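TL;DR need structure tokens for one chain.
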Amino acid sequence: MEAPAVTKTVGHFIAGELTGADNSARYGDIYDPARGEVQARVAFADRNTIDTAVAAAKKAFPAWSRMSLGKRAEVFFSFRALVKEHFGDFARIVSSEHGKVVTDAGGEVTRALEVIDFACNLTHNLKGELSENVSTGIDTYSIRQPLGVCAGITPFNFPMMVPVWMYAPAIAAGNTFVLKPSERDPSAALLMAKLFKEAGLPDGVFNVVMGDKFAVDALIAHPDVAAISFVGSTPIASYVYQTAAQHGKRVQALGGAKNHMVIMPDADMDAAADALVSAAYGSAGQRCMAISASVTVGEAGDVLMQKVKERIATLKIGAGDDALSDMGPVITGQARDKIKGYIDAGVKEGAKLLADGRDLSVAGNENGFFVGPTLFDDVKTEMSIYTDEIFGPVLVNLRVGSLDEALQLMNANPYGNGCSIFTRSGTAARRFQSEVEVGMVGVNVPIPVPVGYYSFGGWKASLFGDTHIYGPEGFRFYTRGKVVTSRWNEANAGMNLGFPTHK
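>> reply
TL;DR here they are.
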């Protein structure tokens, strides 16, 4: 049977217009992961497309950066209303191209709205400070000013939420923006751009270019791009950080993760098992904040593993648009095969396989990119299923004898994105949050993604750069400080070649 003809082509959004869908030299495939079929194609940007998008952003910057804060805020409030109005559209688009179930995609939209909410408060977020009369008749004050053209490079796993983390604070702060979304699920970005224009955003302030590594490298090296934001794997984050910094740009590059959840013997084991299964297998494990390693302390191991196995057996795996599905497919056939390869390696390395997702077949979607929930116990730190970021529905459990051992194990891991502890002991929780070398910590919360008015970011090999993303640090990243010292005094103080003093 022949594959269905592709009828949809996704292009770019530049200077307020859709462009480039039908005249690109290169295209990529957009799959329906549940059915294993190509559902559309996406145009890949060439050098001229990147230059055109950056030029549009550069042209729009002077007027947008000088627009009053109140008028900028009006645009954001209108945009927020439109995103809420199209909530279901975003969820369906994300589910269709990514594969996650529609309810999970809706959660992504909700968290994106939190960041838009914070951006709506730009009038407060951009306030400076003033000190009156630092010297006789002299005032000193600080202001935050935008950088210029900023660019964002975002991953496939959150095609709606992660771009908002970048462009919302950047544009609210007075910058213009060029977004390069993942070529695997790019359509949500175009809907965002169209709604932003409908909300009153001037043409050229927000642009979207599609593409692969060529587009990434072109943005990193472009002389008119002032700042780069990136979310993706650690090797690529390191590359983006080093390369963009060499080109004199401000950079924040968020990398990979191996997020741990520590379960103490005194924890509520049912609550811990529910949280662990949800955090490990939601979105088929394709979250940068997914729990991929549990660390059971003492006698917690036997009890928890049994409860996790029981819950895995009840999960329904299917297409994202099936209302009965708990978990959908992974993003591509290549990702599926890579995940299965890690499961093979875990078995060979001697880990105990308690649940095996390699041979899962979903009725009616036999060609889909499915991997079932997989659970390993008795995992050692030298095994590849522990050392590597698998980015799939594979949970590994390590057993330790004490909280001391758990902390030593986690702090020795090169990643430091997110972690959590489940316990009834305030003493254990307080020590954990203080001593663990991780950027985001949950206490009886499995996925501690901060709300929109705090900032998101890890430590160690999970972050390259000095600031976290969105929230207060997002506004700080997308602005630079200026300090003004002023005197309004008609009297002539005369010349004084000595160093200025406070008098």
